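Something for you to look into today, if you have time. What I am after is a single protein written out in full by you. I want to see for myself how the chain folds. Could you add the entry underneath, on a fresh line?
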Amino acid sequence: MTMPRVVLDTNVIVSALLSPLGNPAKIYKMFLTGLLTLIYSSDILDEYQDVLSRPRLKIPVDEAEIVFSAIKQYGEQIEPLLSTDDMIDESDRIFYDAAKSAKSYLITGNIRHYPQESYILTPREFLEL
């Protein structure tokens, strides 16, 4: 069985850190324990760094650094092809393009922001697969 390949929207990473018992945290732990491959691009990593460093989220700097180093060490960096699909929120395109290019799942808490595609799932839907 091949390991699932996933792109995690920033809201999934943030939720994983803020709610350690929730579904996003379960998915993040699957990545850390080698049960799935996390796909990312340099734009996605920049987005993670920007959001995780926002003071209002109160995510400790050392915790954020652990996330970045784990992603860089164990994730798979790709250079996604750019799509022209209509997006509700243009800032979500980096996740959509990465998942589409890598033929991976895109896991997001904001499923309405994306085109309806079978590979775009909420954390719960992914865990139910």
About this structure: The two ends are 14 Å apart (CA to CA). The chain has one domain: 17-83+99-128. The chain is about 45% helix and 10% strand. Residues 61-74 form the longest helix (14 residues).
